[in-house]
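Researcher: We plan to redesign the surface later, but first we want a full-length starting point. Tokens attached.
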């Protein structure tokens, strides 16, 4: 049975099209900087927001019309949902998807039953992947919804809950591996604290480090060589999450010796909750070789919480693509829409409008960023701005050949530094606007 019978495959119709169910910019096979848009962008649909979100909020009940869903937590309903998900992704033309274990398969009465449920749904996912060619970008485990995780999972004070979380992640990695997943994500969930009076921060962080090492050891044991991705987020659900931002995550990764196995999955709404821009977080991760993948969404700066909206802002997408192109792409990561339609957008077709908007915004961002790079406007300006480090004393500083003493001698002889030049911020902002 078709679940979106009134919708054909979403086709590229070009910038002049006024058909809302078409792409104006995302043309999967179009080549930009030597690669197709599909290869650059590696779009992924997330299972939780797209197929599980029901529109409820703290003030009101579910609103989403999902006629295929009987509302039950049965395996049968979960398997039916797989068919819907793959019909949607195929019509959209998304090459990847991702999920938490509990998005795709219901919790059972025991761990064994829960694992069996997951295996049954994984059979359906595997068949659907083979039928459609859609691939798994990453898998992950939900270690935050069930009440057992109220004190956290890897950072809980309850060793049995830690063990349960470990068993759950072991299974989630195995299923990710079985489905050919290219990455495995750790988002902190409840790995943080509400109050330091009752919290041993050192012990909790040590446990989280141990947990990730065990995950990597298990991956090695079963031959899963996908990338592990740590996803920063400063707050929600806890007051303070240990994975606060890219800097905190990188410090954690290095402190616990995980740098060979773990990179970062950077999300826009999390960056802004941390008081950063997405471009800052991407750049910070990328310059150190740790930008693995992105969760493409956006928050509402007037609301200030994790609203997980679809990214339609072309400036934002351009800034993301400038960083992504500069590091030569995201693969094996991708651009995952960790975003949900608004509670008021309750019809199934809204799922298409939302994803089309995000894909078109990123396709435009890709084209604009490539044009900016081709003209060298930013690159040339920046390298010229630092030219004093290309020769003379600057070159000696960068080469590690200068000491404080040598620099003092140099400056005593010279008397005063060469004059500063303008940073030309406004001129550059105007030039970027020319490309949009
Ligand atoms: C939560 C969030 C997660 C992760 C996966 O804010 O972003 O959905 O992306 O666990
Ligand atoms: Co996310």
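Model: Full-length starting sequence:
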């Amino acid at each position: 049975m078709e679940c979106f019978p009134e919708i054909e495959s979403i086709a590229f119709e070009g910038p002049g099209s006024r058909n809302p169910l078409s792409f104006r910019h995302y043309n999967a096979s179009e080549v930009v900087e030597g690669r197709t848009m599909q290869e650059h962008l590696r779009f992924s649909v997330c299972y939780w927001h797209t197929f599980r979100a029901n529109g409820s909020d703290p003030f009101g009940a579910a609103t989403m019309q999902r006629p295929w869903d009987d509302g039950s937590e049965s395996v049968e309903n979960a398997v039916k949902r797989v068919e819907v998900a793959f019909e949607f992704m195929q019509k959209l033309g998304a090459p990847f998807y991702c999920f938490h274990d509990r998005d795709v398969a219901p919790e059972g009465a025991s761990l064994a039953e829960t694992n069996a449920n997951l295996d049954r749904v994984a059979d359906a996912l595997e068949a659907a992947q083979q039928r459609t060619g859609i691939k798994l970008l990453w898998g992950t485990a939900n270690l935050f919804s069930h009440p057992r995780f109220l004190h956290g999972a890897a950072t809980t004070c309850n060793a049995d809950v830690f063990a349960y979380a470990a068993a759950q992640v072991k299974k989630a990695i195995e299923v990710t591996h079985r489905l050919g997943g290219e990455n495995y994500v750790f988002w902190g969930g409840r790995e943080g604290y509400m109050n330091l009076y009752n919290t041993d921060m050192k012990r909790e962080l040590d446990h989280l480090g141990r947990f990730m090492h065990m995950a990597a050891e298990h991956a090695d044991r079963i031959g899963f060589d996908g990338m592990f991705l740590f996803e920063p987020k400063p707050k929600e659900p806890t007051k303070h999450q240990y994975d606060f931002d890219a800097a905190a995550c990188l410090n954690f990764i290095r402190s616990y010796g995980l740098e060979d196995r773990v990179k970062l999955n950077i999300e826009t709404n999390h960056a802004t909750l941390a008081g950063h821009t997405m471009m800052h977080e991407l750049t910070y991760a990328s310059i150190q070789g740790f930008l693995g993948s992105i969760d493409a969404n956006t928050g509402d700066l007037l609301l200030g919480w994790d609203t997980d909206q679809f990214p339609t802002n072309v400036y934002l997408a351009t800034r993301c693509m400038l960083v992504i192109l500069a590091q030569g792409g995201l693969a094996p990561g991708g651009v995952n829409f960790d975003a949900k339609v608004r509670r008021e957008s309750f019809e199934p077709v809204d799922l298409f409008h939302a994803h089309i908007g995000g894909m078109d915004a990123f396709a435009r961002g890709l084209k604009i960023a490539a044009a900016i790079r081709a003209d060298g406007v930013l690159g040339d300006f920046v390298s010229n701005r630092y030219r004093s480090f290309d020769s003379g004393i600057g070159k000696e500083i960068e080469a590690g050949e200068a000491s404080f003493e040598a620099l003092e001698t140099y400056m005593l002889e010279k008397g005063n530094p060469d004059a500063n030049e303008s940073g030309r911020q406004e001129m550059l902002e105007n030039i970027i606007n020319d490309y949009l």
